[in-house]
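User: Could you write out the 3D structure of this protein bound to adenosine-5'-triphosphate? I've included everything you need below.
Assistant: Certainly. Input first, then the structure.
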Amino acid sequence: MTNTLFEKAKPILESLQSHNFQAYFVGGSVRDYIMNKSIHDIDITTSATPDEIESVFEKTIPIGREHGTINVVYQGDQYEVTTFRAEGEYIDHRRPNEVYFVRNLFEDVKRRDFTMNAIAMDMQYQIHDYFHGQQDIADKIIRTVGDPSERFNEDALRIIRGLRFQSQLGFELDIDTYNAMEQHISDICHLSIERIVVELKKLMLGNAIKQSFNNLRQFQAFSYMPFFKHFDLSKVTIEQPMPITVFIALLKVQQPDMTSNISDLKMSNQEKKYIDKVVQIIEAIPKVQSKAQLKLFVYDYGKEDILEVLSYADTLKENQIAINSPFIINSRAIVEMAQVLPIHSRKEMDINGKDILALVDKPSGPWLKSTLREIECAIITDEVNNYKPELIKWVKTHV
Ligand code: ATP
Ligand code: MG
């Protein structure tokens, strides 16, 4: 059966072949195609060197030239085209600095991580499967290419990748692969945190997160990772897929006394801000005890983010995090409150700091900020209308 994405990319293989190079689809797209899953980015592996790839195609971007990867821009899409390669010596359990370009497919797939990721497919949809990847896919087994202990010793990220695939695909780990993971887990302390986080993000979102997370705990994987090593993960159960940001927020709320620095994870400012916000929402939930407080809560944190956090209520409860009774906080109540908010941000208030200073005979100071907040709360809880003359009257009697 053909596939639209492979059909679109076919001319790239054709061009390489017409210049007497070998070229194949490889990696995740072939694995997902065999599993009948929708495929995303297509990786191509070829006997052409980076220079040769550039000479064949009009538009290329030398994205990872030193590891042999050139992006080919074709009909508006980008394809990663990588030269067949074998890897040099591994130092410190990280990816090697040196790569050797080789001229045959077997050598290239031999250095790939798992049998299901080492399957190549040509233009005619013929499969080249040197390590029984198709059988392992049929049996739902994750198995390294070659001796697992050697492969994890070379690059410990493969351990986390293996657990990431377990979570995403719901496959079992081959017993030797599992044992070697346990044996080599401490080597992940040599990896860059960026590479770990890329895999952890995908792992946390996998449908089989429960098994995969149990294995991470079993191996004490987190104790070898920056930031996470400060938490006691034996207290944490994760049984539903969630963004890593929510997972981190959960840890911070459950174990607030841990001295840890979120910057160690080198996440974006946007992600860090979101983690803080989720922490605030989780901590605010049990304090909401009345309709007025609920309204203020919805105003302060926004419907979308609150609903997102509430979707993890079961997990939070399982992790001994106090959550309000669903009679007080539930998605319907949140949606209804959001609809009746008189204002949605401070900018919509019909009075500002300048107005207040003009009314009150006091120099500006921290009191102004708290006064604005008081007025804001009064508007939200319908104590006063958001109408300047009424607000002025309110200020005169309250300040
Ligand atoms: P996804 O569908 O999530 O992209 P993928 O299998 O394509 O999964 P990538 O990270 O895109 O994963 O890597 C592409 C391919 O490169 C893999 O299928 C595998 O063959 C190879 N690969 C990636 N990382 C490693 C590694 N650390 N060691 C060995 N081979 C690897
Ligand atoms: Mg991929």
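The pocket of adenosine-5'-triphosphate (ligand 1) is lined by residues 27-28, 43, 112-113, 117-118, 155, 157-158, 161 (CB under 6 Å).
User: Perfect, thank you.
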